[in-house]
Design a protein that fits this description.
This protein has about 300 residues and is mainly alpha-helical. The protein has one domain: Alpha/alpha barrel (Glycosyltransferase), CATH 1.50.10.20. It is built from 12 helices and 2 strands. Helix 2 runs parallel beside helix 4. The radius of gyration is 19 Å and the shape is globular. The two termini are about 30 Å apart.
């Protein structure tokens, strides 16, 4: 696995775009999401320090005044992946006004079910006690409901930000509240089998099965939260060799972060997929997943 991961890191470095970013596949224009993941996969290797610096530079040039970050140089709107912008900066020990603004933007952003009128409607319909306990996460697109993946990434970003920036921020309680509402949302949306689907545990009254990638993401986001044994068992018992390469990469990474056996190493697929390659590198061992870990932070 070590030799394979080293080869894949070298491949990531070799396909970095001239602007400092990465596309989803080799030769594609740069996007926020693959740029952040590729840089996170390289950030602990001194040989790639300059490449990570260039990645940070291009992403910072895409930041709006309100703290949100564009998903692409040509798309002038906020991206859910602003959370990855925060995580990447914290992993590189870069904590400044740009990171503060991005974290505050995340704290002020919520899925549509978190809006005041939706919460009031839910309270009325439930006889005064909201069924979800006032829980909401983050959406893919503004004005829509929360989903597991953007919520999980935002939780990692804000948890790390709270730990690493607690001596220099004044809005700690606001961010802590936002984190707690999102953790409740994830815990309340588990499927009957213990894991997570992409959004809700059922559709039209029919229970849904969980997926490996979303179960792994949710548990990465819930690293510091009490978790039901059934959720960890679902993560532990999923046969890595029976899921897609992307699902297997997420499972290995989540297991590393929860100190569980990671399972068989990935096959040497030499994929042209930047996100898959970055996740495989991050899930190599307990040290390589440090940029996403909440353990031992001071």
């Amino acid at each position: 696995m070590v030799q394979y991961a080293d080869e894949r890191r070298a491949w990531l470095a070799s396909i970095q775009n001239p602007d400092g970013g990465w596309g989803y596949h080799r030769g594609n224009s740069s996007w926020l999401e693959p740029t952040a993941w590729a840089a996170l996969a390289l950030i602990d290797s001194e040989a790639y320090t300059e490449r990570c610096r260039r990645a940070l530079s291009v992403l910072r040039s895409w930041q709006h005044a309100d703290g949100s970050v564009r998903p692409h140089a040509t798309i002038d709107e906020p991206s859910w992946a602003t959370s990855l912008f925060v995580t990447l900066h914290l992993a590189s020990a870069t904590i400044d006004g740009s990171v503060d603004r991005a974290a505050c933007w995340l704290a002020q952003t919520r899925g549509a079910e978190g809006s005041l009128w939706r919460r009031l409607l839910t309270r009325i319909q439930s006889g005064g006690v909201p069924a979800d306990g006032g829980s909401f996460g983050w959406a893919w697109v503004a004005g829509t409901n929360s989903w597991v993946e953007p919520t999980s990434h935002a939780l990692v970003a804000l948890r790390r930000y709270l730990i690493l920036s607690r001596h220099r921020i004044s809005r700690t309680h606001e961010i802590e509240y936002r984190v707690q509402t999102a953790e409740r949302m994830l815990l309340g949306r588990r499927c009957p089998d213990g894991g997570w689907n992409y959004g809700a545990p059922e559709a039209l009254g029919i229970p849904l099965e969980s997926f490996p990638e979303t179960t792994a993401m949710a548990l990465i986001g819930l690293q510091q939260s009490p978790k039901p044994d059934s959720a960890l068992n679902r993560l532990r018992q999923w046969p890595v060799e029976q899921v897609s390469p992307l699902g297997a990469a997420w499972l290995r990474l989540a297991r590393q972060l929860h100190n569980l056996p990671s399972g068989p190493a990935p096959l040497a697929n030499r994929s042209n997929d930047v996100l898959l390659t970055a996740l495989e590198c991050l899930g190599e061992n307990s040290r390589s997943c440090r940029p996403l870990s909440l353990r031992g932070l001071t």
